[in-house]
Amino acid sequence: MDLRIRQRLFDSPPCDEVALSSLARAQLVELSSPPTPSEIQQFSQRVSSDLAARVFYEGLLASDHGEFVRYIDELSGDTVVAKVEGVKLLVVPGMFYREHPEVGADGGLALEIAQRFGFNTKTIGLKSTGSVTENSKILAHYLERECDEPVWLLSLSKGTSEVRHYLQQNPLNKNVVGWISVAGTPKGSPLVEGKLGSKTSRLFYRALCKVMGIDFNVLKEMSPRHPFWNEKAWPSSTLDIVHIVPIPLTCHIQGMLRSRHQRLLPYGPNDGFVPVTDVMELPGRIYPVWGCDHFMRIPHLSQLLYRLYNYIALKTKKA
User: Fold this and answer.
1) Positions of the chain with pLDDT lower than 70, given as ranges
2) What is the largest CA-CA distance in the chain?
3) Rounded Cα–Cα distance for residues 57 and 252 (Å)
4) pLDDT of residue 6
5) What is the pLDDT at residue 129?
6) Per residue in 256-289, is it b (16+ CB within 10 Å) or e — as a string?
7) Residue 4 has what pLDDT?
8) Cis ω for the linkage preceding 34 (within 30 of 0)
């Protein structure tokens, strides 16, 4: 008799992604391009979250975003084509970046490669368990007092929430010329909703946050229902905005994100933290990354960063 406990290792086996891609392109004929968030959510619930994810991906490639993707992909992913001079790259890190640097939310890899291109680099010293409001003020303070050269912001995960809040609540510093958001949470996460749903739950999570040293306002402000994320106004400027968006299938989700991914499926395809379509509400261009979840553990991540920095370097050279 086999008495071993069988733990589920993945939520699904690998699928035929070639056939999935072909089917997704056929489905796009009946949808707008790129499909709207509501179309993707409805399609996911009606048919399949995996097919909806591929439909969203193919829709982006068939839209104006696809032209940008093709341009970036043509740039070198292993060579510094042009150096930059007098340009600062500021990393806006994600949550727990101090406690868990192994996750990569501190932007260490992005900084290492940026230095090879000649960027002046710095990580903004946000509070790793601080609220969006608090960290946005830290970002604003730094930009107001210490930036006298062209600046590109690079935000990771929750850092995107703080950059969005900064851009929508403060006069834009004239030296900020671009923003790259990597696996961002542009309007919080629906994962927070269950933690604030009742008085008992709120009391429990308030106490838990205190024990863990987390500002309880993090939970409140990372709720998609928070008034922050209803703000539609953006600074009128030539700010260059690029969103790097992971788009996984169910079989791509790594172990520690499986339960989160499953909880978010009612919202459609997601990266284990946020619905992938959340980015559609933001201005800028989208570069979708197929086959990876929120943690972006993909073999070609370094090559993507080289291409993005070559894009900035060539654009700076032309200016």
Assistant:
1) 1-6, 319
2) 72
3) 15
4) 66
5) 93
6) ebbebbeebbebbbbbbbbbbbbbbebebbbbbb
7) 59
8) yes
Sign of CA dihedral 261, 270, 162, 179: positive
**Structure confidence by residue, pLDDT tens digits, 257-285:** 999 999 999 999 999 999 999 999 899 99
What pLDDT score was predicted for residue 86? 92
Instruction: Give me the sheet containing 120-123, strands edge to edge.
Output: 120-123, 88-92, 151-156, 176-182, 240-247, 285-290
Q: Two tokens at 319? A: 């200016």
Q: Positive or negative, the Cα torsion across 211, 217, 221, 226?
A: positive
Contact 152, 180 (CB under 8 A): yes
With contact defined as beta carbons under 8 Å apart, do 305 and 109 qualify? yes
Q: How far apart are CA 111 and CA 132, in angstroms?
A: 23
Query: Exposure of 30 by Cβ count < 10 A (0-12 exposed, 13-18 middle, 19+ buried)?
Result: exposed
Kind plus residue range of the DSSP H or E element containing 314: helix 301-318
Give the integer Cα–Cα distance in Å for 262 and 38.
Answer: 19
Q: What is the pLDDT of residue 45?
A: 95
